Structures are given as C-alpha cells and as structure tokens.
Amino acid sequence: MVHTDVVVVGAGAAGLMCAAQAGYRGRQVLVLDHANKPGKKILMSGGGRCNFTNRSVSPENFVCNNPHFVISALKRFTQQDFIDLVDRHGIDYHEREWGQLFCNDSSKQIVRMLLTECDWAQVKVQTRTQISSVQKLQSGGYELQSNQGSIRCQSLVLATGGLSFPNAGATDLGYRIAQQFSLELVEPQAALVPFTLQPKELNRFSSLSGIAIEVEAQCNGASFRENLLFTHRGMSGPVILQISNYWSPGQTFSINLFPKINLYDWLLEQRKQHPKAELRNILGEMLTKRLAQVLCDLWDCDGPINQFDEKRLKAVSEQFSCWKIKPSGTEGYRTAEVTRGGVNTDGLSSKTMEAKNVPGLYFIGEVMDVTGWLGGYNFQWAWSSGFCAGQFV
Ligand SMILES: Cc1cc2nc3c(=O)[nH]c(=O)nc-3n(C[C@H](O)[C@H](O)[C@H](O)COP(=O)(O)OP(=O)(O)OC[C@H]3O[C@@H](n4cnc5c(N)ncnc54)[C@H](O)[C@@H]3O)c2cc1C
Question: Which of 17, 241, 253, 339 has its CA 20 to 30 A from that of 308?
Fold first, then answer.
C-alpha cells in the first residue's frame, strides 16, 4: 500500500499544474494516468504548437451553468501568470489574431515545462495506471485500487478531462467518481466541434466543400465573426466551432453572409450602377461564384438585378444576412476539441475546487462544467483551476 498526501488523477494540463503547486507547498504528490505518457492533449493542441492562453481572458469567454463560478480562479491565476511561467522556461511564442498565443516551436515545450515544474516540486508522475475503484475512508482520506496496487491519500483531485478524442485517452472516470459521491453532472456534449447536415442539404452543398468565407454566426444570444468552412460532412471553421459551444441538438442558428456591409443598401447601389447584371454575379463578387450560385438556386432569386423591386431586394438581403440553419448534429467526440457540461460547479467551491459536501475531493479542468471559447481559453481554465486547487489540496 502506497501512502501519499495528494493523488491527482490525470497527467494533463490541469493535473500537472495542480500537482506542481501542491508539491511546492511541501505536499507529497502522486499523479496517476492510464496513458503511456503525460499531456497527450497538450501535445496535439494548436496544430502541434499549443495555443496555451489568450492575451485577453474574461469570464465571458466561458460557458458554465453558473457564469460567476470562473471569476475567482481566473483572477487568482491569470493569463499573464502563465505567460510569465512560459517566459521563465525560455519558451518562445507568438500572437495570432484574436490574441491567441502559440509556441513558436512545439507543444512539447509546454509538456516539458510542466514536467520540469513537477520535478522541481518533487511530484511523482506515474503513467500506465488504471484505477478500478475509489473509496472514502472512515478516518478521512481516500483509498484507490489500481493495476499498480492500492494507494491512500488525504486529498484526491480528479483532473481526467472531457470525453473528446477517445484515442488520446479520454474516459468518463471523473464523471463516474463525481456521481459516486452524489455530485450532479451537467449533461456532457461534444463542443468546439463541426456541424453535420441532413443528407438533402449535404447534397445541395456538396460542390461547396473547401470554400471558406468570413461570416457572423449567432446562436442563443452568442455571436462570433470568423471563417466558415464548407466540408463534405457539413460546416466547420472557427465560427462554427465557437457557435457549437452554445448550440443544443434540434436548435437552429443563423449566419450573416455579409457581416461587413448593410446588404440592402449595397444591393440598391449595385442596381443603380449595374442594372443589367445578374444578381448571382453581384453577390458572387463577395461570396465566391459557386456559393452565390447555390444559394440563389436555393432561395429562387436569380435574374438581372433590375428585375428586383425594393421589396424583393429587401427579402433577398434578409435571406443572405440571416440564413437559418438546423444542423443534423455534430461530428461528435471523435473531432470535438472539448466537452461541454461535466461536474456541476454548484457542488464545488470556486475558491478551492473542492466538492462542498465531500471534504478532500477536488475537480479541476475540463471535467468540470466550464468550457472555454476557441483561442486558448480551455487551457487557461486548466491552468487557473489547477493552480487554485494546488493551494489547498
Ligand atoms: C485536438 C485538440 C486540440 C486542442 N487545442 C487546444 C488549444 O490549442 N488551446 C486550448 O486552450 N485548448 C485546446 N484543446 C482543449 C484542451 O486540450 C483541453 O481543454 C485541456 O487539455 C483540458 O485539460 P485537462 O487537464 O482538464 O484534461 P486533459 O488535458 O485532457 O488531461 C486529462 C488526463 O486524464 C487522463 N485520464 C483520463 N481518464 C483517465 C482514467 N480513467 N484513468 C487515468 N487517467 C485518465 C488522460 O490520459 C489525460 O492525460 C484542444 C483539444 C483537442 C482534442
């Protein structure tokens, strides 16, 4: 039987951050992971360059049943705190649009940095460890059974992440342990994920696969202006991934294909200047020829623009600036970057991440019902929540 102060289950972003912090406080920490190496999702993140945080982070960048929950942790370990850590380790990085920060070289540097921190804090990281059960002891503390034997600890931290990318080692262990201790779950759902379309629509849009255009998309009060990409399965691109954080099955969302202009005014002007031009060609100037053609066919609005009176032009403008789409679903956990939902934050302390009714049990990172936007926010939540729990475990 191994005895230690703290067991962290999950050697990912949140788990390694928490473990190093607790280790620096003098706690004896053991990190367990069933995978063959730590930080697999960090390694694959940001196209291999890890978008590790964002220049600008605020609670509005997160989806959570209790929007206030994230405020405290984001304040106590900010994006600048993480940038300082990256600087101390001599990792070079660059900024892309929307304040996204990426490693210049490789995500491996972030994993190496976290493992170095764990090493300095005398944390032990043990991979290939499968946990079969967890039990709360009468005397306080927890006992875990694993394929590497039994382990006893005072504090148990679940940092097992979400369900996306099962190939990278995602499991529902964190959710199962939460339920074992009567914590509620917000139903997990694939997020930051492409949408699929009904076969009929897919057929209609099949010739558009590969086209990318900047649009504004709206869903349930959220609005994003970024690129939309037509794919052979449906719709993807950053704007779709962002909107998927707010979408639930069965709902529609809308797309403004002309976010930069007032389409109606522009069409009136075009009619004045090029009265004989085909509407599809005019729209195609901004949308690409193929997309304009497909949508003009779909909405039955073809012909020279001078045949369109104000009422019809108004209707055309509305179609193109408020295109309502009902996805058939998403591509699911296979391609989702994150899982929305998870351990309900109502049952957790926003200061310590400890379960309010289960002393010594902590949840951090993506396993909780906190989902960030695309752009480095999910890692920032892992760092912030991991750091906070690390001060108390
Ligand atoms: C392809 C891809 C790209 C991404 N890119 C970015 C990006 O650039 N920026 C960003 O902010 N976010 C990105 N994300 C999201 C980000 O990776 C996660 O939100 C983040 O890793 C969550 O940290 P975590 O520590 O909670 O979970 P993870 O980092 O997922 O760590 C969980 C750990 O728990 C272990 N584990 C799971 N189940 C068990 C079990 N039963 N027993 C033992 N161990 C277990 C896993 O092996 C894993 O090591 C990306 C995600 C994916 C899939």
Answer: 253
Ligand 1 closest atom vs CA 16: 25
pLDDT digits (tens, 9 = 90+) for 325-354: 999 999 999 999 999 999 999 999 999 999
Q: Does residue 336 lie within any of the structural domains?
A: no
One-letter amino acid at 197 equals L
Q: Residue 278 belongs to what domain range?
A: 195-330
Residue to substitute in 242, 244, 378 for testing ligand 1 pocket (most ligand atoms within 8 angstroms of CB): 378
Average pLDDT (176-196) is 98
Number of domains in the chain: 2
Ligand 1, CB within 6 Å, residue ranges: 9-15, 32-35, 40-41, 44-46, 50-51, 131, 159-161, 164-165, 169-171, 173, 337-338, 365-367, 376-379, 382
Q: Which ranges constitute the DSSP H helices of the chain? A: 13-24, 40-44, 71-76, 79-88, 108-120, 173-180, 199-205, 238-244, 263-273, 279-287, 289-298, 310-321, 377-390
**Concatenated DSSP letters for 241-257?**
HHHHTT--TT--EEEES
Edge-to-edge order in the sheet of strand 323-325: 323-325, 253-256, 212-219, 222-230, 234-236, 195-196, 329-330
Tell whether 335 is covered by a domain: no
